[in-house]
Design a protein that fits this description.
The complex is a heterodimer.
Chain A lengths: L24 E2 L12 H19 L16 E4 L4 E4 L2 E3 L5 H21 L2 H6 L1 H17 L2 H9 L4 H26 L5 H10 L4 H21 L1 H7 L2 H8 L5 E5 L1 H4 L6 H6 L12 H5 L19 H13 L6 E5 H11 L34 H22 L4 E7 L6 E2 L5 E11 L5 E8 L5 E4 L9 E6 L3 E11 L8 E10 L4 E10 L6
Helix pairs in contact in A: 1-4, 2-16, 4-6, 4-8, 6-8
Chain B lengths: L13 E6 L2 E4 L3 E2 H20 L18 H25 L2 H6 L1 H18 L1 H4 L23 H10 L23 H13 L10 H11 L1 H4 L25 H9 L10 H17 L6
Antiparallel strand pairs in B: 1-2
Helix pairs in contact in B: 4-11, 6-11, 7-8, 7-10
The chains are: A alpha+beta, B mainly alpha.
């Protein structure tokens, strides 16, 4: 018996029904940042000039190191495995200095972030600097925000095509210059520039330029804020570095809300009204396309251009600057408590002001003291400690090194007169760019002498040998001890290398092996 | 869409799918990500067409560029051979002594000889050329057949007591067990041992010297310093191929062991033999 009434409709939906299907991706919302002007913009121009100047010019600085070393101030000589930085020359085994600098950069970033928020992102990050540079080009060619938006929305005319082509062409030139400047750090810059234009440079040079041109053009011109929002890990990490005493770009809604475009009308109706006139100037200048009035958010790189924009508006309105300002969370919270009467009401900006309209003295303002707190002291201490350690290590490092490898196979050889011979690879490192004569001496091991293979140096307990500038010299040395002087199967003695001219010296403790039966 | 639902907490629209009151947020991928994803797929297709990739029944597709890692190795090897060319030619043209005077050439020959030594010589002479009982240590300064570069080369080229090479170094110590008495063997062993160390019974030395003078001086010489013409070892030094001490010496007098070394020139060729000679000479005992 079938009873159709028992069939019930199941309440379910397909996960991807045709009527509700949405695209797999979200198109990027185009951002047309308006040109800002003010103190922070001027500061950013300055930082941009300095950082770009350092990047493009450093490779061309000269530093005289004598005839045996390159005279480029900063050079990563990968072929010879040397790194030159002004008066410092680093060998591969001294790479820990670079690692130490990276640790310092990391701790320095913690310090800066805990003190003044994401200042790195806002001012010094290459992404920020290059996007700024690309925006300069974009504005110069297409005009400011409104002109660009109109152009973008408009149909493809000959003018639009011409503007777009020239913009992208200049971007590509900047990209190529970026990649081009990079490779000058890896070879003699004047020589390389000649080779580049005559087509005789190494293929890797052209490939590097091509790759960096592509990334600069894509990141700086096309992707811009998406690099920071989606690709960069710093926003996530740096957020963890912030605390309630860190300076961040803050919209002070305790004086700004309730915002109104018709303040006078609203005020006349008896309602309270804040300083924000909802002009959206802060949104228009934002290179990240966000509204700072929504509060602190992941996308905000704290470039402070919204502060400039808002300060300009406040000036025009005759109100105090700083509706958007660098503020700490603790100050902000204190002021919010004031404006909301301890959190009991909605924001009433009149609570933060006196009867004559100035700020009440209960309003908290940032004080420089807040930067100096245990957290930043710890970071500063750590940073200086590593720095001093590196500096000490750099100033006291050896420029004459001696390494000795004892032959293992065979450990010793019995000679026809019964004496025992051990072989050693003696490595002399002359780490300065000048030729030196190194005197190698044996200390200990009575009665023993040594000979250098392949050299006409008579057997003895000491020999002098020239070492080329900035090179490692490996010597095969045979040490021989008469049978009657051997008193243990393993005796220790020292090789000593000395530069008689500079009094630099280094020692290496070695072992001399003999058969058990020898004594 | 009119029925779009916005999540209150995150402010993000939902896909409209709901399970037990839980809605799925719609956080679409950025367009650049999706484009990159498609580009990687296209790249994979191009790459696997251009290079060997797709497995077939018996082999894999060859790829349109005709790349092959074996061909790469072959080219690398050819390039390495070409790079070695000028050294190899010089080694062929020069004698071993001449090679030793040229620093760059000597370094090359030592490296090449060391490699050849590891393959061909370590079986008897040991990986460090330290030898063992019956197999000479090549690091020391005691040479049965001479330690000059050209003598070493001669030994490697033609071998020792190697029957199939007419130019091989040849010598044979008689088994004195059949020629002199056991007492005389004990006496001469004591005498030989006394030349480089202590003996148990000093009274045997004097008669031993007489036995030595009668039987041994022809090859080992009046002063027992040996003779390289016959590969006769120096009996006064500290190096003993078949062991030191009277017992070992007596055993060698009675029924001597005689080592054989193959002639290598036929197998390795003139150039490798020269390289080996340079390497052996460089071990510290070369003359």
């Amino acid at each position: 018996m079938r009873d159709k009434t028992q069939l019930t409709r199941l309440e379910t939906e397909t996960v991807n029904a045709a009527k509700t299907r949405k695209p797999l991706y979200a198109a990027r919302q185009k951002i047309f940042p308006k040109r800002a002007s003010g103190n922070f913009r001027r500061f950013k121009w300055l930082v941009m000039t300095i950082t770009l100047g350092i990047y493009y010019l450093t490779a061309w600085l000269h530093w005289d190191r004598g005839p045996f070393a390159p005279d480029q101030a900063v050079l990563l000589d990968l072929t010879n495995r040397r790194f030159y930085f002004f008066f410092i020359e680093i060998w591969p085994q001294e790479f820990f200095y670079v690692a130490g600098l990276l640790v310092m950069a990391g701790v320095g970033l913690f310090l800066i972030t805990s003190a003044v928020g994401r200042a790195w992102c806002g001012y010094a990050c290459p992404q920020t600097v290059w996007v700024d540079l690309f925006l300069v080009v974009e504005r110069a060619i297409e005009g400011d925000r409104n002109a660009r938006m109109k152009l973008d929305a408009g149909p493809w005319t000959a003018r639009k095509l011409m503007l777009r082509v020239s913009k992208h062409a200049i971007w590509l030139v900047i990209g190529a210059a970026t990649g081009g400047a990079w490779i000058f750090y890896f070879a003699d810059a004047p020589t390389l520039v000649g080779e580049l234009f005559t087509g005789t440079a190494a293929p890797v040079a052209y490939i590097t330029i091509a790759v960096l041109t592509a990334t600069t053009y894509t990141f700086g011109g096309l992707m811009r804020e998406q690099v920071c929002t989606y690709m960069c890990p710093w926003p996530r990490i740096q957020a963890a570095m912030l605390d309630e005493n860190s300076l961040t770009v803050t919209y002070n809604d305790w004086r700004g809300e309730p915002r109104s475009r018709h303040a006078k009308k609203v005020q006349a109706s008896g309602q309270s009204v804040g300083d924000c006139v909802d002009c959206n100037a802060c949104v228009a200048v934002c290179p990240m396309g966000i509204d700072i009035r929504d509060g602190q958010q992941l996308e905000c790189i704290t470039c402070a251009l919204c502060i400039d924009a808002c300060d300009g508006v406040m000036d025009k309105l005759g109100k105090e600057r700083g509706l958007i300002s660098y503020a700490t969370l603790s100050d902000y919270n204190a002021n919010m408590m004031l404006a909301t009467a301890g959190g009991s009401s909605s924001i009433n900006p009149s609570l933060v002001r006196t009867a004559v309209g100035t700020f009440s003295d209960q309003v908290a303002h940032f004080h420089i003291r807040k930067i100096f707190r245990p957290r930043t002291y710890v970071y500063m201490g750590l940073w200086s400690l590593i720095g001093l350690g590196l500096l000490y290590s750099l100033l006291t490092r050896d420029r004459l090194e001696l390494n000795v490898l004892h032959d293992r196979n065979p450990q010793f050889v019995t000679l026809s007169d019964g004496s025992i011979r051990n072989g050693y690879s003696v490595k002399l490192l002359n780490m300065i760019p000048e030729p030196r004569t190194i005197v190698v001496t044996m200390q200990g091991l009575e009665g023993a002498d040594m000979v250098v293979v392949g050299d006409d140096i008579p057997a003895g307990r000491s020999f002098a040998i020239p070492v080329e500038p900035d090179r490692l010299k490996t010597l095969k040395v045979f040490v021989r001890q008469p049978a009657d002087q051997i008193h243990a199967p393993a005796q220790t003695f020292k090789f000593r290398a000395e530069d008689k001219a500079s009094f630099e010296s280094n020692e290496y403790a070695a072992t001399f092996n003999a058969p058990e039966a020898a004594k | 869409m009119s029925d779009e639902h916005i999540d209150e907490v995150s402010g993000v629209s939902t896909t409209g799918h709901e399970w037990d009151g839980i809605r799925e947020l719609n956080n679409p991928l950025p367009r650049w990500w999706v484009i990159t994803f498609y580009v990687t797929i296209a790249w994979a297709l191009v790459y696997t067409t251009a290079y060997p990739a797709w497995p077939m029944l018996t082999s894999a597709t060859k790829g349109m560029l005709g790349y092959s890692s074996r061909k790469d190795v072959k080219n690398d090897l050819a390039a390495a051979e070409a790079a070695k060319g000028k050294y190899v030619a010089a080694i062929q043209a020069k004698s071993v002594s001449e090679i030793l005077t040229d620093d760059a050439l000597r370094e090359f020959a030592v490296a090449a000889g060391a490699a050849a030594f590891k393959v061909n010589c370590t079986q008897c002479h040991g990986s460090g050329a330290q030898g063992s009982k019956g197999f000479p240590n090549l690091n020391d300064d005691d040479w049965l057949w001479g330690g000059s570069p050209d003598q070493i080369k001669q030994t490697i080229t033609h071998g020792l007591r190697f029957a199939s090479d007419p130019d091989t170094r040849l010598s044979e110590m008689p088994a004195f067990g059949d020629i002199i008495t056991a007492d005389q063997i004990a006496q001469v062993s004591a005498y030989v041992a006394s030349l480089s160390g202590k003996v148990r019974d000093a009274s045997l030395i004097q008669p031993g010297a007489k036995v030595f003078a009668e039987n041994c001086v022809a090859c080992h010489g009046d002063n027992a310093k040996g003779n390289r013409e016959f590969g006769a070892p120096d009996l006064t030094d500290a190096i003993w191929l078949y062991g030191s001490g009277e017992t070992a010496i007596a055993a060698q007098v009675r029924a001597p062991k005689q080592g054989v070394m193959p002639a290598w020139v036929g197998r390795l060729g003139e150039i490798k033999v020269k390289e080996l000679a340079v390497y052996v000479h460089s071990l510290g005992g070369g003359e």
